[in-house]
Amino acid sequence: MRLSRRDLLRSALAAGVATMFPYQLSAAGALDTAGDYDRYLILVELDGGNDGLNMFTPADTTVYYQRREVRNPDPNSSNGVKLGIPPSKLRQVGSTGHASFDAKIKMNWNLVDGTGSNRLKDLATQGELAVVLGLGMADPSRSHFRGIDIWNTGSISTATLNTGWLQRALSAGDPRPSTIKAEAALLSRPTSNPLVGGNMRVLSMRNAEDFVKQSQGLVDPSLTGTAARQHVLNIQKQVVGARTQFETQFGWVPPIGDGSGRLTTLPTFSGDTGESMFPAGDFGNQCRWAAQLIAGGVGVPVIKIRIGGFDNHSSQYDKHNDLLAQLAHGLTGLRNALQQKGKLTQSLIMTYSEFGRRIEGNNSGGTDHGTAAPHFMIGHSDNLNSGVYGTYPSLGNPAVATWGDPALFQGDFIATMQFHQYLATALNFLGLPHTQFSPATTPIAGLLKE
After folding, report:
1. CA neighbor of 252 nearest in space, from 240, 264, 241, 260
2. Exposed end of the chain (fewer CB within 10 Å): N or C?
3. Are strands 129-136 and 417-418 parallel, antiparallel or unpaired?
4. What residue numbers bound the domain in which 276 lies?
5. Contact at 8 Å (CB) between 42 and 283?
């Protein structure tokens, strides 16, 4: 199926974002900030609200096991409402050079145990993993829609913004070089967009080949007519420009007869056979496609991928562990692919989610919407100081009911680090300003190397 001009505009309006937003900057609004457009930020959305407590437990698990009864490792046992990860399934880094890991957290075994690889444990010992604890905000929202809106816009819970945190940072920076054909590529869930607000060229696409095929019906237009018509034609012009770059960069061969056209020089990666590098399924494909865009030198500084399924109000244990295995497998593969092509030094991978989950499970073997949660960044040791940052939030006093515990927020975690600091750290990596946040914030001290 090819996109007509009407289809292009209809999909833009329906999604809340254009397939590409034309980029217009006024010199009056520019700051003296030079973005590093040879760098890439890869956003990983954990859609649904990830249970950070079962991803990274506190190093001292005493209260953890009082809050979450330990799951019997015996798969035949009847313990479907028990959520606590058994002690035998928790992993530590065990490296004297990275003592903050073992002093603060233990890792879910699915983040570590892989075929021929210790996944996140290996990244930690290589100096490439930073875990940030207790990320959240004051007066947090437990609404999926509002929670992800706060993260995407970088607002506070009591205020609403109509622009994304990356949109504001990129608009405030120096104009992008001509090699930048789009500010971002959203490979999944384009309605969750940290560049929302206009003045950004945002590609909503599955992968490069699909984008080229879908846009074959569009031609480079002349920008004449009414203002509304010029706006639509400008979007079309930007799409054609991006498609042309992909065709040139990746060796487009047009269809012959009834056949399908294809890109012939997409980057490939040593060891990418079967599920050895990436997990099967959509998330593994997104990790591969993101690596191809970066390895191919496409001028798109922000790429967003997504893994869904974290909203588990019932029977969470097995489903969540499977998601964590996919997450670790896919991101380790993405890291390895970037390393193979010499792009890891230019890249930073970061996870985020609309909220965490409640400290205690419910009666259906699941968890309900929570507040603060840990997240992590992956990057080259030249850029990142590997370790655990921040303080694990209190799990409260097990002798007191969670809703009556003054150490908790409505029976849940109280954030120990404002999420704005996490976003500011990513902007610092890209060389972009982080003065947009209110209240004023700074990047996480020591996480990135000077």
Report:
1. 264
2. C
3. parallel
4. 5-23+39-73+80-430
5. no
State how far the Cα of 233 lies from the Cα of 22, in Å rounded to an integer: 10
Asked if residue 30 belongs to a domain, the reply is no
User: What is the gyration radius of the CA atoms in the chain, in angstroms?
Assistant: 22
Mean pLDDT of the chain: 88
DSSP labels, 239-305: HHHHHHHHHHHTTEE---TTS--EES-----TT-STTSSS-SSHHHHHHHHHHHHHHTT-S-SEEEE
Has residue 449 been placed in a domain?
A: no
In this structure, what token pair is assigned to residue 292? 């191809």
The backbone torsions φ and ψ at residue 109, rounded to the nearest 5 degrees and listed phi first, read -60, -25
Joined tokens for residue 132: 């940030």
The whole-number average pLDDT for the span 257-262 is 81
pLDDT of residue 12: 39
- What is residue 104's three-state secondary structure? helix
Per the document, the length of the chain is: 450
Core vs surface per residue 3-30: b (16+ CB within 10 A) or e: bebeebbeebeeeebbbbbbbeeeeeee
**Averaged pLDDT for residues 415-438:** 94
Task: Confirm if 152 and 353 have CB atoms less than 8 A apart.
Answer: no
Kindly tell me if the per-residue pLDDT of 66 is higher than 70: yes
For the chain, how far is it from start to end, CA to CA, in angstroms?
A: 48
Alpha-carbon span 290 to 111, nearest angstrom:
21
pLDDT at 9: 40
Q: What torsion, rounded to 10 degrees, do the Cα atoms 348, 349, 354, 356 define? A: -110
pTM of the shown model = 0.91
**Residue 438 located in a structural domain:** no
- The answer to the question of residue 212 being in a domain is yes
State how many domains the chain has: 1
Quickly state the pLDDT bin for 269 (edges 50, 70, 90).
Answer: very high
Nearest to 4 by CA among 232, 292, 302, 328: 232
Condensed to tens digits (0 to 9), the pLDDT of residues 111-148 reads 999 888 899 999 999 999 999 999 999 999 999 999 99
Which of 329, 281, 308, 352 has the alpha carbon at shortest distance from 120?
329
In which element (H, E) is residue 350 found?
strand 347-352
Got the DSSP string for 113-124?
-BTTB-HHHHHH
> What pLDDT digit, counting tens, does each position of 310-367 carry?
999 999 999 999 999 999 999 999 999 999 999 999 999 999 999 999 999 999 999 9
Average pLDDT over residues 231-248: 87
Specify the DSSP class assigned to residue 237: H
pLDDT-based confidence at residue 236 (cuts at 50, 70, 90): confident
**Residue 112's closest CA among 132, 139, 131, 135?**
131
